[in-house]
C-alpha cells in the first residue's frame, strides 16, 4: 500500500458532507426570482420553491417519516416531484421513484421489495393504488397529490392533500447533516427475465454526478447545452433515473424549469413555445412523437438543444430534428450509472472536418465525461485494444455508479465482475476516446459466423425516405443460426416492402458498410412498434410477437 501523507484537520474544522441539501441552496442564491412552471396552471420562484421544500419536510415529519424510511412517489413530471427529490432525501429518508408504467403486479413487487413506508399518490393513480394497497406489507400512510386541492379522493391511510398540508405547515426546516454515504434514492429497472431490480444511489454519488453533469452541459464548448440562462423542460420521466439527473443540475444553477405533467404532445409543444424552452432530453421515440404532433408543424424550433439517450440516435432522426432547427447531441448511460457516462463532443480535429463527419460523431455515444473511466473487455475479463474496431463489452468505473442491487447481493456481484461495472453493451473505443455502442450483447444477431449490429441496421433502414420507425431483431434460422428481421412503420401515404428495403441497403453492402447477410430477408409492416415503459424499443416483446407470427403465418409478413 502507498505510504501517503495524511494531515489531521483542525479540531474545529467542519467535515463538510456531500449532501443533496447543498445543491438546493445554490439556485436561489443565483436567481431567486427565476421560475419553476407546472404545465399552464402554476408558476412560482426559487425562493418559494425552497420554502415549499421545507414545508414538505415538516408535513412528512409530522406524518411520522424519519431518517432511513423509504418514501415512494407516484406522479407525473411536476413541481411536486421536484420538491420530493429534495425534501425526502434531505430528511435522511430514501426517495423511491415508482415507475407508474409498470404493471400493477410489478409496482406491488417493487413497493414491497423497497419496503416503502409512506406513499405520495397522484389522483390519476388512485384506482391503481387502491387495487394493490391491501397487499402492501410496510406502508403506513399516504398523501394525495392533485391539481385540484378540493378533489375528494380516498386512499388507504390518507393523511391529507398535498397543497392543503403544505399551506398549513411551517415554512422553515433545520435540515441536519449526516453521512454522505447514506442512500438517497432508489428505483427499479426491468431486465429480460425475472423481477425488476432495485438500483440505489447515495447523497455523495448524486452530488458528484450533478457536478460532473453541470461541467459537461455547460463548460465544453462544442456541446454547451445548458447554462443558467437556458429554459429547461424534461421529456424523460422523473421516475427514470431522476429524469437523468438534470433537475438536480438545473436547481443547483437556478435555471428556469418547466414541468409538463403527463406527456401530451400538444401540451409539450405549447410549453416549448410559450415558455421558450431551449433545452431538453429524451429517447428517440419521444422526440419523433413530438415532431409529428400537429402543434409542431410549421414551428421553427431554432436554438433548441436536446440530448438523446436511452436508445441509439440514428442519422434519420438527427437530420429530421436539424431540419426543424433542433441540435441533437447523443449521450450514453443506463439506470445503474446514475446515468451520465459519456456525451458526444466535437474536438478541434472534427471542427476542421466537414459537417458530414461531425454529424457522424454527434450521434455516437461520445467521450466519457469527467471522472468516468471506460474500457472494452472480453468474456475472460481481459482489456481489449482501443482502436475503434475491436469490439467487446463496455465496462465502467466512476464515483457515482450503483454499488449493487438492493437486497440482491449475487446480482450485484455479477454486475461488478472483475471490479468493473458491466453494461451488457457491445462497443468500441477509438484513439479520440469515443465510445461507439454497436449493440446490446443480447441483441447482436449471429448469422453464418458473422455478428450483425441491430442498431447499425436500424440506422441504415431509417434513412429510407418512406420509413417512420424501425426495429431489427434476430430470429432463429435453421441454416444460418439467426437472420435479421425488421419491423417497420411506414410514413403516412408511403409504400414499403422487403424488396424496397433490399434495394435501399444494397449500396451500403457495395460500400462495405454492412455485409450481404445483414439485409433482412423478412419484414413486418406494422402500425406501431412495442415500447418499454420509458419509450425504448421493447425487443424482448418483439421477439415474442415474431415467434407467434411465424407460428401462425401472420398476414403482416412481407418476404423477399
Automatic annotation (TrEMBL):
A Pfam family of this chain: AMP-binding
Keyword flag Transport: no
UniProt keyword Transferase present: no
Domain named AMP-binding enzyme C-terminal: residues: 456-536
InterPro entries recorded: AMP-bd_C, AMP-bd_C_sf, AMP-dep_synth/lig_dom, ANL_N_sf, ATP-dep_AMP-bd_enzyme
Domain of life the protein comes from: Bacteria
Gene3D superfamilies named among the record's database cross-references: 3.30.300.30, N-terminal domain of ligase-like
A single MF term (Gene Ontology): ligase activity, forming carbon-sulfur bonds
Domain spans labelled AMP-dependent synthetase/ligase: 31-406
Keyword field: Ligase
Family, per entry: Belongs to the ATP-dependent AMP-binding enzyme family.
Protein name (Swiss-Prot/TrEMBL): Fatty-acyl-CoA synthase
Species per Swiss-Prot/TrEMBL record: Phytopseudomonas punonensis
